[in-house]
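Reopening: Purple acid phosphatase still failing for me.
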Amino acid sequence: MDQRQIVTVILLISATVAADYVRPRPRKILHFPWNQRSPSQPQQVHVSLAGQNHLRISWITVDQSSPSFVEYGTSPGQYNLISRGESTSYTYLLYRSGKIHHTVIGPLDPSTTYFYRCGGEGLEFQLRTPPAQFPVTFAVAGDLGQTGWTKSTLDHIDQCKYDIHLLPGDLSYADYIQSRWDTFGELIQPLASARPWMVTEGNHEKESILFLKDGFESYNARWKMPFEESGSNSNLYYSFEVAGVHVVMLGSYADYDKYSDQYSWLKADLSTVDRKRTPWLLASFHVPWYNSNEAHQGEGDGMMASIEPLLYAASVDVVLAGHVHAYERSSRIYNGNSDPCGAVHLTIGDGGNREGLARKYKDPQPAWSVFREASFGHGELNIVNSTHALWSWHRNDDDEPFRSDQVWITSLASSGCLADEMHESRKILMAP
Ligand SMILES: *[C@@H]1O[C@H](CO)[C@@H](O)[C@H](O)[C@H]1NC(C)=O
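Support: Ran it again with your exact input. Result attached.
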């Protein structure tokens, strides 16, 4: 070997040692072949929780006269139950949406498979209702979009055993091109027609146009969430309960100051939480408050200043956010300081999408930041019982779901954090 070859070999060896994990590149946007079917055939079927023991089935037909009923039952092909619902549609510049149907079914039994058909036409779908008791598992992935990475994230979620999909904002990345909402609906239908998808809005849902369009029109029409069922007057924030867990889905893009509707609704909602019935309390919204990535630095500060004291007073266990296209997990924290009664903050805005990963982190890593990694992937929150939950993050590495981070989380209800009812920090929830 001459000197140059030796240097090359040394460089190669050191590169192999240093680069233990080579980040994959963004993947292409998926193309969807035009799929001919009858105008009354249901498309883009998805399911969401709609109050206790009820689910909302949402779908779209090209035909504006298709009926909004759902037939269902517990055996395939045998629908002994029927529910009638409502429908809406919208126009957006030159685009005219199909008929968007929303039909609530129930009361349903927990942990039960139901077979259903929408509008008396097309394929039979099947769904599984969530359990009434622990254990319950949430799959979590935000910032999905519709790229090759989205597809692999969805495939991995499909392989895990989960009851509910939680999506902390940024769904389709339609970004004004409305037909992309339709292709996104088709892409996720295999999963979203089978398990409830609970979503909250991100910046990519806004799609406002000065003087022409208010924000969130398409999102609100297509992704109706149980805001009425939870006493909220906006689809941009609401809450739901499932198997011993109370979840508040908040709006990073709705007003959040002390005089806002969201603030008063949240305060009222949190004061109704009964930790004997729901020992776990989760919160989810789009823009993270604890973020050591260079991307979107400080964007959550305004909401945090207003809302964090409420979440702390109510002893929220875990906060799930998106927006930053990388994964990060905090220690229990409140007001910037480590606090055994604060929430664990998880940023999981890395479901897929065409914008790629956020690779630059602040250096040094803040003390509260326990784990951070820029990769696409999804999270699983398996709430085992009233005291223990197992959180894991699975990156997409080489198309295999690889469990890169895992931690046991103990509920605040079992950690003595609820004991002092009259603690100074709690008074904010009780004040009129
Ligand atoms: C909850 O689950 C954890 C982990 O499996 C276990 O160690 C603990 O004993 C369980 N607690 C109760 C109250 O069942």
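Residues 128 and 358 are 35 Å apart (CA to CA). If you still see a failure, please send the error message rather than a screenshot.
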